[in-house]
Design brief:
381 residues, alpha/beta, Aspartate Aminotransferase, domain 1, globular, binds pyridoxal-5'-phosphate, EC 2.6.1.1, alanine-glyoxylate transaminase activity, transferase, L-aspartate:2-oxoglutarate aminotransferase activity
Length: 381
């Protein structure tokens, strides 16, 4: 018998009721039955994005499709765009821009560090022509959370759109589209939204439309103008991922019932307990003070083969945590704690880390991490 536990930074665990909603009989999408579900999902997404904008688009795609849509709908060939890198996902913004002939002005941040908002002000003063600024809220590859509120303040006085990859940030860290003045934000289904992979959500503020009308990059499937027109008719231009949208109805209901502020504070508390448990084991956080509440990235002990230990843990115990990507492969491991996660998930995750290290010859005291997690959870309610 194998029972599985998913502590990866996407995909994440899915509540049973969401799976049941996804398993309902298929319906046709050009019906009022579908439109009612779709419009309710769109309304609930506005709440998650903290936006009054009527334009929240749901694409059948992974998160990256939503990112590509932001690039092709706001820019023309040869335009300049400022991109905060410092991890695989920040780099992805730059790669998408480059694929379309956009001139990227990178702001490179050391892996594991957050960008200082002043750097954006500085870059935009120098590059007055820059049309868009692309930032990642939570850089899932390093575990860093960037200060989007501060960044929005720094970008505000300039004439560029602020576009945020909130794919893992949404539903974990506060993101106030309207209050902070974010022009476009992207979310994905398989992270904090407690859904399977396959949907990208893009929230477009009124302030972005002037640029969207001018943007000349080629697009067909990703066209925001088509999406807007269809949304006005309570539908999508092409066949939507009907089952996933039915599942989203349930998942967003759960978020609304809990209350978004409570969702944020639950993540903050659980992430704090995770970090404390890791430190109690004598391990070091890769992102230090910039650690997100989405996942905890941990430096792998010196000389320890973390990847084979992770594989063994998954194969033998059914617990999945992840290693680092590309340059960080073998150097860090990552524990995802976003979405459908509670206290006992953290206890399981930390005890799995203890077992994984101990069994593979790393000198740690068994129970020390778990005991610290229990203490923290009991002392901060
Ligand atoms: C997961 C993720 C993405 C998108 O990845 P897809 O595999 O395309 O869904 C983008 N940005 C961040 C920060 C992510 O964590």
């Amino acid at each position: 018998m194998k029972k599985t536990y998913l502590f990866t930074p996407g995909p994440t665990q899915i509540p049973h009721d969401v799976t049941l909603a996804e398993a309902k009989s298929m319906i046709h999408h050009r019906t009022s039955e579908f439109s009612n579900i779709f419009i309710k999902v769109t309304e609930d997404l506005k709440y998650v994005f903290q936006s009054k904008s009527d334009e929240v688009f749901t694409f059948a795609s992974s998160g990256t499709g939503g990112m590509e849509a932001c690039v092709v709908n706001t820019l023309s060939q040869g335009d300049k765009a400022v991109v905060v890198r410092g991890g695989k996902f920040g780099e992805r913004w730059a790669e998408i821009c480059e694929a379309y002939g956009v001139d990227v002005i990178p702001i490179d941040i050391e892996y594991g560090k957050a960008v200082k908002p002043d750097l954006l002000d500085y870059a935009l003063r120098k590059e007055k022509e820059a049309r868009s600024v692309f930032v990642t809220q939570c850089e899932t590859s390093t575990g860093v959370v960037h200060d989007i509120e501060g960044i929005a303040k720094a970008v505000k006085s300039h004439n560029a759109l602020l576009i945020i990859d909130a794919i893992t940030g949404i539903g974990v860290h506060p993101l106030m589209m309207d209050d902070w003045g974010i022009d476009i934000a992207v979310a994905g289904s398989q992270k904090g939204c407690m859904l399977p992979p396959g949907l990208a959500f893009v929230c477009v503020a009124q302030s972005a439309w002037e640029s969207i009308k001018k943007a000349r990059l080629p697009k067909y499937y990703w066209d925001f103008k088509k999406m807007r027109k269809s949304l006005g008719n309570k539908t999508t231009p092409f066949t939507p991922a009907i089952s996933l949208i039915m599942a989203a109805g349930k998942a967003l209901d759960m978020i609304k019932k809990e209350g978004i502020e409570n969702v944020w504070s639950r993540h903050a508390r659980l992430a704090h307990a995770t970090r404390e448990g890791i430190k109690a084991l004598g391990l070091e956080l890769f992102a230090g003070d910039a650690s997100s509440n989405v996942l905890t990235a941990v430096k792998s002990p010196e000389g320890f083969d973390i990847n084979s230990a992770i594989k063994k843990l998954r194969d033998e115990s059914g617990v999945t945590i992840t290693g680092g990507q590309e340059e960080l492969k073998g150097k860090i491991f990552r524990i995802g704690h976003m979405g459908y996660v509670n206290e006992f998930d953290i206890i399981v995750a930390i005890s799995a880390v203890e077992k994984c290290l101990h069994e593979n010859g790393c000198k740690i005291e068994l129970g020390k991490g778990v005991s610290r997690v229990q203490e923290v959870l009991l002392s901060c309610k």
